[in-house]
Design a protein that fits this description.
This protein is an alpha+beta fold. The chain has three domains: 2-82, no CATH class; 99-114 and 169-340 and 359-489, no CATH class; 504-630, no CATH class. It has 27 helices and ten strands. It has helices at 2-27, 45-61, 72-82, 99-114, 116-119, 130-145, 172-183, 188-213, 218-229, 233-236, 241-244, 248-262, 265-281, 283-304, 308-335, 337-340, 345-350, 386-395, 402-418, 426-432, 446-466, 471-489, 536-541, 559-568, 574-582, 592-595, 599-607; strands at residues 30-32, 39-41, 66-67, 70-71, 124-125, 496-497, 520-523, 587-591, 612-620, 623-630. The strands form four sheets. The protein has a four-stranded mixed beta sheet with strand order 7-8-10-9. The chain is globular, with a radius of gyration of 28 Å. The model has no long low-confidence stretch (mean pLDDT 91).
Length: 632
């Protein structure tokens, strides 16, 4: 009796230490000083290690077939009730020829209906920051394709700093999609918004294809694709085209499943190329995706008994292809590491999610915005909506099969990684994995959690549809799910019109077409408009001229530019003029629309200095703009 009681107590301590480790990881731990004594626990690895030690002692020296006083066989029977290898078997519903066109049409129709505010305002964007930055990046790639692509990563900003295109996401693949639209003569605003609108149904479609390959019916797959299409992550990142373009990850997963089923090398290479396409679209998601892929594929391979020995060599071959395709993009980024440096761990921790962030809806989520916890930190409003959570809970009711277990494991890993420096795994990646030190926002891992939610929600829909005995009841249930999801995920967009032209001073013959001889400094460096990101308007204007400039905006800011910003505050004083000369500036622009009342004083001071010669005066948005030449 005493031995059984001791085993029971030991089992209780093992469970308590594991539960304590999980609780510490989720809450960040605790700190207290009762009676002057410090009691704290900030990391979950210590109680987890204690649990492992106690478990080893129990297994090595206190052998027993009981756990909490019950035979292990009873737990095995309970596990078999929860996990059934056949529970995720295919619906065996034949794919009709008309399914795919109907699904594409439905996704496009629902997407345009839900984003009708954007469709009706194609020259407007959610803010005058990152959307302009995306237009500049796509325009720069198109410009270089027409000239010398070898200089692609030496963009026209932060002159004379090299490799400035690597200071943020390069968006090479979205730029390739944009190139034919630029070549057709469409305005950059129209090009940008066409791509933005097209990305939503593309995300839904690739998720639908993945779910069909996993054996789900067309109806359940459509519902899962609809969620991923309007995963609230996309509303949080509506200003970031590259973060919204995440359709390659479900496509890569689909090819992984096809490869495992057919054992054909072509599907393994297709999976690798799709993963690389994600890297060339969004480097954040491209770098995060393999971390998500490993647990999903591992659990599914074990559950479905994939012949890993027969797949291993072909997997390695596909990995070689992936490395070869990714290398041209990775090379300039590693070369620019000395310019960028690392993200400070404090900044990474600020953008690391907390558990409460998953209950914070973004204000763009119409149904929920302002009704749950307050959205108080940028890029950390991670609430995924009610419908996918309810459907996923229905899907995870026993019995579950290997597919659900695999994507549930991916969801757990994604959740922990989204917690960044507050989680268990991310600090290791930050310390040891190349590239992670340059990433600022671990919370973006929530998009991968969204893939798991889409899969589980689709299984939840399948379970609901199976409870209906007649076709019309199944149709009614499916319609109710779709309507619920549309209402749940409906966006509310506030859009701002963008200037559709650049000031005419850039057309002056003194600088037009002289990109090898002219270097601009554009004033003011800082725009005091809360919807406008400083210096980005000048990058947007460069879509009309592509002249080098000392101005710039990107994910990283070179140290030399930070010094110039300080000196430019007193422009045109001798120190700022000397700094501009040092950087090779040949021409100065002054835009009074961005400067306000001090503009007249600045222009009068420029006119009174012998270093500057006035070349061109024009008006833009009702205010004067001027072009000056630096007299050498």
């Amino acid at each position: 009796m005493r031995s059984r009681r001791g085993l029971f107590i030991l089992d209780a301590f093992i469970v308590l230490f594991i539960a304590g480790a999980v609780l510490i990881e989720l809450t960040g731990g605790f700190y207290a000083e009762p009676f002057g004594m410090r009691i704290s626990s900030r990391r979950g690895d210590r109680p987890f290690l204690l649990a492992l030690i106690l478990a080893f002692i129990r297994w090595r020296w206190l052998r027993s077939d009981d756990f909490f006083g019950r035979p292990l066989e009873s737990y095995r029977r309970l596990w078999r009730r929860w996990y059934d290898p056949a529970a995720d078997s295919s619906d065996n519903a034949p794919a009709r020829w008309w399914h795919l066109p109907v699904v594409v049409t439905a996704f496009c129709g629902i997407g345009l209906a839900m984003l009708r505010q954007q469709l009706l305002q194609m020259t407007s964007v959610p803010d005058l920051g990152d959307p302009l930055f995306s237009m500049w990046r796509m325009g720069w790639v198109f410009h270089q394709l027409q000239g010398d692509p070898r200089a692609l990563f030496d963009a026209n900003i932060f002159y004379p700093t090299p490799l400035t295109f690597t200071l943020s996401e390069s968006m090479l693949l979205p730029s390739m999609f944009a190139a034919p639209l630029f070549a057709a003569g469409l305005h950059p605003l129209i090009v940008y918004n066409i791509l933005l609108l097209a990305v939503f149904p593309a995300n839904g479609l690739t998720t639908y294809l993945l779910l069909r390959r996993l054996g789900l019916s067309a109806s359940a797959s459509f519902a899962g694709g609809l969620f991923y299409m309007f995963h609230p992550y996309r509303l949080e990142h509506y200003s970031h085209l590259e973060q919204v373009m995440t359709m390659w990850m479900p496509l890569s997963l689909m090819f992984v499943v096809r490869f495992a089923e057919s054992r054909r090398l072509a599907y393994a290479i297709a999976a690798a190329l799709a993963a690389c396409a994600q890297l060339y679209s969004s480097m954040y998601c491209g770098a995060f995706f393999p971390v998500y892929l490993v647990p999903v594929v591992a659990v599914m391979a074990l559950g479905r008994h994939w012949p890993w020995r027969q797949l291993l060599l072909k997997t390695l071959a596909a990995g070689v292809v992936a490395v070869a395709v990714a290398a041209p993009l990775a090379k300039p980024y590693f070369a620019a590491q000395s310019i960028k440096g690392d993200r400070e761990s404090s900044a990474v921790e600020f953008y690391s999610a907390e558990v409460a962030d998953y209950f914070r809806p973004h204000p763009r989520l119409a149904t929920h915005g302002g009704h749950w916890l307050e959205d108080k930190n940028p890029e950390r409003a991670l609430f995924p909506g009610v419908t996918p959570i309810v459907l996923s809970a229905i899907a995870m009711a026993p019995p579950i099969g290997p597919v659900r277990a695999a994507f549930a494991s991916g969801m757990l890993v994604s959740f922990d990684m989204s917690r960044g420096m507050k989680g268990s795994l991310y600090p290791f990646f930050y310390e040891w994995v190349p590239g992670y030190r340059g990433m600022r926002v671990p919370a973006r891992f929530s998009v991968l959690l969204g893939i798991s939610l889409a899969v589980l929600a689709a299984f939840g829909v399948r379970r609901l549809l199976r409870t209906q005995r007649t076709a019309w009841r199944r149709g009614l249930m499916f319609a109710a799910v779709v309507v619920s999801m549309v209402v749940d995920l409906a966006p509310s967009l506030t859009l701002y019109p963008v200037y559709t032209d650049a000031p005419r001073i850039y057309q002056d013959q003194a600088i037009a077409g002289r990109s090898r001889e002219v270097v601009l400094a554009e004033f003011p460096f800082e725009q005091h408009d809360e919807m406008t990101t400083s210096e980005l308007p000048y990058m947007y204007f460069s879509l009309w001229h592509w002249l080098p400039m000392v101005n710039g905006y990107s994910g990283f800011t070179p140290d030399g530019h930070k010094q110039l910003l300080e000196l430019a505050k007193d422009f045109p004083d001798p120190a700022s003029i000397a700094a501009l000369r040092t950087r090779g500036v040949t021409h100065i622009t002054v835009n009074c629309s961005f400067m306000g009342d001090p503009c007249r004083n600045v222009m009068d001071r420029l006119d009174g200095r012998p270093e500057f010669k006035l070349i061109r005066v024009a008006h833009w948005r009702g205010k004067p703009t001027r072009l000056y030449e630096f007299v050498r």
